[in-house]
Design goal:
SET_dom_sf, H3K4_H4K5_MeTrfase, 14 helices, SET_dom, single chain, 3-stranded antiparallel sheet, Serine Threonine Protein Phosphatase 5, Tetratricopeptide repeat, 10 strands, mainly alpha, SET domain-containing protein
């Protein structure tokens, strides 16, 4: 938001309401004002007025979720309970950012490294990550070089374990302290692991159980976002979106889907988690509100879940989807590890595809495409869907040719004998007519 952008690139998240003023002519001024207010916040992050002013501008630009985040920070700055330690940039923060800049190039190189599943006999990887997964042309508005895919590095027999992919970016719904409540939909039958949602390596100051208790049925989703933020802090990257676990994820901003917004779950809890791990949410622009929503969009498009857990697997998330996959995946007993196996023979250089939703196997084209809108912002264009779409179009054309009613199409169409012969009359028919006449 600190850089100017063209009015043509303006894509508000809130649709206009009936009777609302058209702001098209005001866009250049509002965009310029937004840039100015953002720079003011960077210069003086503890001035509540700056956050409040930018919230008003974001509201005018129809970004209510970003406006809510700025307004919440303005309220927090006005509170007498704000700790004094959050009003200054610490020396450790400066050192952490500088260390992140020093190793940033190495981190970027790791984003496109080969997958680490290896053959026990040969020690060679089964698969590698490559650019131009679907050719040199653009795909869904992306340059071909930005479209990544996982390819077989050797001939792979059917049923071969290709990858075991553990993850530390996950969340879970807890059993909850209140049974039969809206925040505890499983009635105490959530994750019962005594350590979760914490990791064995974490100490008491890093306890995240408060998030699970506070967010109830949304805990798995909120905890997953917080896990990514914690990773970016621990690994000392200059910006969370440049972290290799996050930068590799492709977001999908579904224009046709209305996303529910929660001030507590989407903004307040992640901000409190950032403060728990030492981030100054007012002075550090790397953790601005728009970053939280960009992170959420990347997670939503690359996560998998069961009724209790939600997880992003670092290598599995790089596999592209097909309704005719050549790779199967199963969830391990720990609910945070995925096992990936070939479902048929795969030749070297062939792209490896998974099916995002196992329940779609065998479903018709329309049902598959409808369900896949959870991950895709357009109809699935895998080879199977394209083939079935062409076949449906061909059959539809043949039906239209026979049923159009023109003399040319129906010139040699024979009518069935049932249509021209006299219809039989049963005794029951006359009885029903008489009875109906009596009632009338």
């Amino acid at each position: 938001m600190d850089h100017a952008f063209s009015a043509r690139d303006w894509q508000p998240t809130k649709p206009p309401e009936p009777g609302e003023e058209d702001i098209s002519s005001k866009l250049p001024g509002l965009i310029s004002l937004l840039n100015h207010q953002t720079r003011c916040i960077y210069d003086k992050p503890y001035q509540p007025r700056f956050w409040y002013d930018r919230a008003k501008t974001l509201t005018a630009l129809r970004y209510p979720e970003l406006a809510a985040g700025d307004a919440q920070k303005a309220i927090k700055l006005c509170s007498d309970a704000l700790d004094q330690e959050h009003r200054a940039r610490s020396d450790e923060l400066i050192r952490r950012v500088n260390r992140g800049f020093a190793r940033f190039s190495q981190v970027r190189r790791e984003e496109i490294k080969a997958c680490n599943g290896a053959s026990p006999d040969e020690g060679a990887p089964f698969c590698v990550l490559r650019r131009y997964a679907f050719g040199n042309g653009a795909r869904d508005g992306q340059d071909g070089s930005d479209v990544l895919g996982v390819f077989a590095a050797m001939d792979i027999p059917k049923g071969t374990p290709i990858l075991v992919d553990p993850s530390e970016t996950w969340g879970c719904i807890g059993p909850g302290s209140k049974r039969r409540s809206t925040g505890n939909p499983h009635d105490g039958r959530g994750c019962t692991d005594p350590i979760h949602p914490n990791l064995p390596s974490e100490n008491t100051s890093q306890d995240l159980r408060w998030i699970r208790e506070r967010t109830g049925s949304a805990a798995a989703d909120v905890l997953l976002r917080c896990r990514f933020l914690i990773h970016s802090i621990r690994d000392q990257v200059p910006h969370p979106l440049s972290h290799p676990l996050i930068a590799r994820l492709t977001p999908t901003y579904r224009q046709e889907k209305t996303n529910l917004f929660s001030l507590d779950h989407d903004i307040v809890v992640p901000n409190e988690c950032l403060q728990q791990f030492g981030i100054d949410i007012f002075a550090d622009p790397a953790y601005d509100t728009w970053v939280l929503f960009t992170l959420a969009a990347r997670i939503e498009n690359n996560s998998w879940s069961d009724p209790v857990h939600k997880c992003v697997s670092p290598l599995f998330s790089l596999f592209n989807h097909s309704c005719a996959p050549n790779v199967d995946w199963t969830i391990g007993r720990d609910h945070t590890t995925l096992w990936v196996r070939s479902s048929r023979e795969v030749t070297r250089g062939e792209q490896l595809f998974v099916m995002y939703d196992h329940f779609l196997l065998g479903q018709p084209l329309s049902e598959r495409r409808k369900r896949l809108r959870r991950w895709l912002d357009a109809d699935c264009q895998c080879s199977l869907c394209v083939q079935e779409e062409k076949e449906e179009g061909r059959l539809r054309g043949e039906r239209n040719k026979c049923d159009c009613g023109c003399s040319g199409c129906n010139k040699e169409v024979q009518t069935s004998l049932w249509d021209v012969e006299k219809k039989p009359v049963f005794p029951e028919d006359s009885y029903r007519v008489e009875r109906r006449g009596e009632r009338e």
